[in-house]
Write a sequence for this structure.
């Protein structure tokens, strides 16, 4: 079983939405997948999203990442996804998350910049991130455009697709 863990110490960056989308993607591909949420805000979210013998486990962690359960999950991950928003106010929590993840894992790290747009704050953040990525040897940076469809999917508890 492959384990994909979504982690960030900051709330509101898209961990839940992105973990849901990855779960929906695997479901559409007929891949046996389970979705696990450690975020207490969504207690009923994954009751019907676990299968026997999954090929993939998608794990959504809470905003606080210093707890033992999250660290153990990071240590067992095959891939760690760190979502962030493209603003300067996210840099401090993002860099702390990267440090913690790198201390506790030996797998690829994907940075998912959620809500990218054409405005100056987003452009400045992306310029900073490219330099930081090289310094920290981060594997992949994905950008997710700011989109009303993502907000609507979250409200409907369904996939964007």
């Amino acid at each position: 079983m492959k384990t994909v863990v979504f982690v960030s110490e900051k709330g509101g960056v898209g961990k839940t939405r992105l973990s849901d989308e990855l779960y929906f993607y695997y479901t559409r591909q007929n891949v046996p997948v389970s979705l696990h949420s450690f975020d207490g805000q969504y207690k009923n979210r994954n009751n019907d999203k676990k299968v026997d013998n999954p090929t993939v486990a998608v794990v959504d962690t809470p905003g606080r990442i210093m707890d033992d359960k999250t660290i153990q999950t990071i240590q067992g991950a095959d891939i760690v996804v760190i979502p962030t928003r493209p603003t300067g106010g996210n840099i401090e929590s993002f860099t702390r998350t990267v440090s913690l993840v790198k201390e506790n894992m030996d797998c690829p790290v994907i940075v998912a910049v959620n809500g990218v747009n054409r405005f100056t704050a987003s452009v400045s953040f992306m310029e900073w991130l490219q330099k930081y990525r090289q310094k920290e040897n981060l594997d992949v940076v994905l950008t997710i455009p700011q989109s009303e469809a993502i907000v609507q999917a979250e409200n409907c508890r369904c996939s964007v697709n």
Helices lie at 15-28, 68-75, 91-104, 120-136, 148-156. The chain has one domain: 2-156.
